[in-house]
Write a structure and sequence with these properties.
It contains 10 helices and no strands. The chain is mainly α.
């Protein structure tokens, strides 16, 4: 559909004073932008911070879980956590860069983490003892969730340096990575090598933090 433009509008030209005023406002609002590092560099930095934070947060509680593992089991478990940290870091970085190539979405990252960690626990620790199940499990769920809070804060600050276009998806991704840090702390601290305990109370941390991230992201997108 075409519209006829009145001659008085099509032929109008702004006066030089108005142009100068508009240019001054635009130049005054413009601030220099510091470019982000490459995606690979940000992912590597995220994994490095992940490892340091997991160790620091475990120190007050002790490394009883690490001491219970055989070298082979420790290598498999911690390698899986680090690989997932790298994958979820890529998901977070992808949310910061509009139009970037995204192989794995936030929800798919959460599902992958839950499935992989649950399968690994079942294979490495094929014990399904249910005695004191809830009494021993709730403290782990609480500790893992609390340890995810500082990680969520750092991830939120990092995301502000990018350009997030989907607040909900970004919040899910950040919650998943923060929850994985809580699982990493529990893998170092918790001495219970029981598949049912790990799946129900350790892996549940990432489900809880992803859900909290989804709720916060929905609220931000609706009301902020």
């Amino acid at each position: 559909m075409q519209f006829d433009v009145p001659g008085r509008v099509s032929g109008a030209t702004p006066d030089s004073a108005s142009v100068k005023r508009i240019r001054a406002k635009l130049m005054g609002a413009a601030t220099p932008i510091r470019p982000l590092p490459s995606s690979g560099a940000m992912m590597a930095l995220s994994v490095g911070v992940f490892v340091v934070m997991a160790i620091l947060l475990t120190i007050p509680f002790g490394f009883q879980g690490f001491s219970r593992l055989t070298p082979g089991a420790a290598a498999i478990e911690y390698s899986a956590v680090l690989l997932l940290a790298l994958a979820l870091s890529g998901v977070v970085v992808g949310q910061m860069i509009p139009g970037s190539r995204r192989i794995l979405g936030p929800v798919a990252g959460v599902v992958l983490s839950v499935v992989l960690l649950s399968a690994m626990a079942s294979l490495l620790f094929p014990v399904f003892e249910m005695r004191n199940f809830v009494r021993q499990g709730i403290p782990c769920l609480r500790l893992g969730t609390l340890c995810a809070i500082p990680a969520a804060g750092l991830i939120g600050l990092a995301m502000k340096r990018g350009f997030v276009t989907d607040t909900l998806q970004a919040a899910i991704a950040g919650g998943a990575l923060a929850g994985l840090l809580g699982i990493g702390v529990l893998a170092l601290h918790c001495p219970i090598v029981n598949a049912s305990h790990i799946v129900a109370w350790h892996v549940a941390v990432i489900a809880v933090t992803s859900l909290l991230g989804a709720i916060s992201g929905w609220c931000l997108s609706r009301f902020v």
